[in-house]
């Protein structure tokens, strides 16, 4: 899990709307969701991940995830982009 969140910033997509858009476009390798995120947001993201076959996992809190990502704010959802070769598959 920590390895996923330590991906270089250019490989990450931060935030609910951005992750949802990238998932809809099949551009994500995996998703990490903070456990204290709003239940409706969790339901939407996990449902989308299941629909698109994107693996997802949970992290302990939004604040801690934001710190780990070196953000100045809490983070509810983070996605890791597929590599270029994965996009063509």
Keywords:
5 helices; alpha+beta; 60s Ribosomal Protein L30, Chain: A
What's the quaternary structure here?
A: single chain
- Following the backbone from N to C, one meets helices and strands in this order, namely HEHEHEHEH
CATH fold group:
60s Ribosomal Protein L30, Chain: A
The portion of residues assigned to helices is: 40-55%
Query: Could you say which overall geometry the principal axes of the C-alpha atoms support?
Result: globular
Annotation field: number of helices = 5
Strand content: 15-25%
Low-confidence stretches: none
Report the span from N to C terminus.
Answer: 24 Å
**Rg calculated over all Cα atoms:** 12 Å
Main sheet strand line-up: 1-4-2-3
* Count of β-strands: 4
Within CATH, the superfamily carries the name Ribosomal protein L30/S12
**Main sheet summary:** 4 strands, mixed
Mean of all residue-level pLDDT scores:
91
Secondary structure layout plus pairing:
Layout: H1 2-5, E1 12-14, H2 16-24, E2 28-34, H3 39-52, E3 56-59, H4 62-68, E4 77-81, H5 84-87
Parallel strand pairs: 2-3
Antiparallel strand pairs: 1-4, 2-4
Helix pairs in contact: 2-3
């Amino acid at each position: 899990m920590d390895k996923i969140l330590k991906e270089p910033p250019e490989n990450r997509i931060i935030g609910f709307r951005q992750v949802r858009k990238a998932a809809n476009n099949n551009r994500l390798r995996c998703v990490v969701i903070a456990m204290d995120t709003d239940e409706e947001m969790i339901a939407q993201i996990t449902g989308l991940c299941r629909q698109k076959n994107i693996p997802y996992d949970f992290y302990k809190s939004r604040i801690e995830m934001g710190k780990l990502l070196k953000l100045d704010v809490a983070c509810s959802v983070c996605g890791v982009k597929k590599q270029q070769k994965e996009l063509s598959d």
